[in-house]
């Protein structure tokens, strides 16, 4: 997990969350906190910057020009470059930290492990896997995001690690790997609800995830571990477990761990932050 000086959720409520990212205290939107009440209102006045939605899914940071163009935080051996975006994101999803620790444990038990990381964003799982000694295929449709992930690898001292950086459509890449007869020891995927591939291919998680999981089964070694996370309305722990059982394993698997992802706040409350389903032998 993160040390408090690198990342900490200080408070949340009324549709917002107050977080520390390194030296900056930030006030951001949080739909998951709509029905919660803030527990320490005076602390919110200390925020260096507040993100406010202005048009659709875009918004502004206020006051403007307070945050630097980039800054960094670390998780273990991995360093992440952060930057404020129009969407309110910074380039990292802190709730994934527990999964990075889980991946490191899995790789420690698998010498020379090969990891496939799909919808890989800025590379948290890729960095955690590479730092633990794995060979990684990092796949994301957004070229600029793949470049951001490579920058994170450089900052983490992993520029020479055995990582393939691939700006490709996940489904297309997986189908090509199936034809090649490739095999992976760990499968990681964090699919969006909706998106587009490199050439405009439409992705809808409810329509396309089942077939992708079926193809991933073909790419998996007999004892491969799998980590599936999701932030899509309508897909809870039960639904993700059932998808894995039906389309990846082809049978009921009572050992699948399926539960909400959350971030522990400073006052010991938990902010819901998606769903995970994972399995290891």
From TrEMBL:
The organism of origin for this protein: Blastopirellula retiformator
PANTHER family reported in the protein's UniProt record: SAM-DEPENDENT METHYLTRANSFERASE
Molecular-function GO terms, alphabetical: methyltransferase activity
S-adenosylmethionine-dependent methyltransferase domain ranges (all copies): 61-219
Enzyme class (EC, first level): transferase
Gene: rlmI_1
Protein name in the entry: Ribosomal RNA large subunit methyltransferase I
A Pfam cross-reference name: Methyltrans_SAM
Keywords for the protein's UniProt record, in alphabetical order: Methyltransferase, S-adenosyl-L-methionine, Transferase
Domain of life from the UniProt record: Bacteria
Listed EC numbers: 2.1.1.191
UniProt lineage: Bacteria, Pseudomonadati, Planctomycetota, Planctomycetia, Pirellulales
